[in-house]
Amino acid sequence: MSGINILHVEDREEDVFLLKYAFKRAQINNPVNVASDGQMAIDYLAGNGQFSDRRQFPLPCLVLLDLQLPHVIGLDVLAWIRKQPEWKRLVVIVLSSSIHDNDIIRAYELGVNGFLVKPSDANNLADMCTALKQYWLTHNRFAPDCTPGLKAV
Amino acid sequence: MEVFKIVNEHTRKPLGNPALEALHLKRTVILSGHTLLLTKDGREMPVDDSVAPIRDVSGRMAGTVIVFRDITEKRNAERTSARLASIVENSEDAIIAKDLHGIVTNWNKAAERIFGYTAEEITGKSVRVLIPEDRQAEEDQLLKALGRGERLEKLETVRRTKDGREIDVLSSSSPIKDAEGNVIGASTIAHDISREKTMEAELTMAHAELEEYARKLEETVAERTAHLQATIAELEGVSYSLSHDMRAPLRTVQSFSQIVLVEAGDKLGATEKNLLEKIISAAARLDRLIQDVLTYSRVSREKIELKTLDVEKLIKQIVDERPDLQMPKAEVDIQGPLPTVRGHEAYLSQCITNLLDNAVKFVPRDRHPEVCVRSEVHNGHVKLWFEDNGIGIPQESQQRIFGLFERLHAQTDYPGTGIGLTIVRKAVERMGGKIGVESEPDHGSRFWLQLKKGEKK
Fold first, then answer.
1. B91-192 under CATH 3.30.450.40, yes or no
2. Nearest residue to A69 via CA among A44, A45, A95, A87
3. Nearest residue on chain B to A10, judged by CA atoms?
4. Do A121 and B244 touch (CB under 8 A)?
5. What is the model's pTM?
6. Tens digit of each residue's pLDDT (9 = 90 or more) over B122-169
7. Which of A109, B150, B188, B217 is buried most, with the most CB atoms less than 10 Å from its CB?
8. What is the pLDDT of residues B34-62, one digit of tens each?
9. Which of 238-257 (B) contact A at CB < 8 A?
């Protein structure tokens, strides 16, 4: 399902690079947009300012969300997403270095679809992305409004 | 013949026959009033006596009439009265008599001592001089009640002394009646309770001080607790950012080195490749260390609840998940059935994992690791033994190994962070248990952990 747009919410350039590299190794070719803090992620989804241009900033069907973000933290972004009627069905997966039980519990309470811990090892990250591709982008069915073309413009 | 015998009651000397005196003086004679008549049966009877001459019609003395009056009762009454007077006079409490207008008629020594007025000063004056202005109404009510013949007991009140001091007294008043039963006055017994009152006030004050002290102490405790909680929250924040801020750059070091190795490996010489590999393994080790410190700090702080756990099942699960604990790499022999224990699943799991990992790790390279897990039950406690065939631990190092960052071996021989057993010890302590080791170099180690036996389901 190469038409599925992915939004990667991550403030660290290195981690953005590492995920991009791991996607390449896992042969994930989907379009990836990056929001570099929590507020930007909300603006992106809400179509505020420059993000109203959906050709350049297409609506995502899958969000990979870091938790430790400047300005608005990841859990608050998640809470905001689940409060918007149009984003209730959005697949959100936490991709964080946090191994705190409280973060994991809170994320599930807020309605996250999955919780992945960033591996320190590039090879492990590539393996994780391969699994992500297999599960979320191959076998998983998204809600019908994520079908390419319906929401793209 | 002697008809009667009389003596002076004080001197005990026999007295002459009063009849002779009367005859001699030719008139009536009244004796001293200190006469004792000795009766025929040997009793002594106080008597009043008088002797009067009897004259015939011509006026000649014809004889005498002797009259003895038994005054035993009168004497007794006098004695009782004197005794009562003495009791009143020597009482510790003020005893005051007054008429129905409140005018003092009697005033004992204690009254003088307590109130300062002598009997001469106050007799004939109103008792109201003893009563403070704001309590004058008390006396009005008292006099009314006494007039109706009522008693008033144990009135706790305040009275004023001659020198103007106010003292606390406990006073009881009762009416005085005449022979016909008419109330003619009142007697008041006043007990000075100033000392008791002072002590009571001191006690109240001491009590209040104590309460104040306890309150302050509670305040201090609450303050310190709040401070401690704030510190703990701060520490949690530190450990939280540790996991992010320290691990993130490490991830970059490790992953980027790996990428360089993959992408440009064929352009690098063997030395450069080796250096990159060293960077990668150092970063991995540091990451492992940070994760262990985080685990240790979490195990130290978290609130946990103990449950009955199937320890045998838990060990089997751990072995199943870890290839390093399975054949052909190693052999773990569980001598079941093992009893259930009281513990926290994640903590016990962490302990068992660390102990088994160590058991197969610290084994000479040419030896096949074998671990035996068995149990003992003593007095409601379960001791779990983890016995290996490894290198063993010298006696002098056996306590050190549970300390933070303590390591006995070089990183190249047996890699590790030096936190594993510290986590185990802390986790066991948090579950209310104990841990220990018995070992000899090259004869293997026998680690044990002791927990409460589980409750029957």
1. no
2. A95
3. B248
4. no
5. 0.53
6. 999 998 989 998 888 888 888 888 888 888 888 888 999 999 888 899
7. B188
8. 788 888 887 888 888 788 888 888 877 77
9. 240-241, 243-244, 247-248, 250-252, 254-256
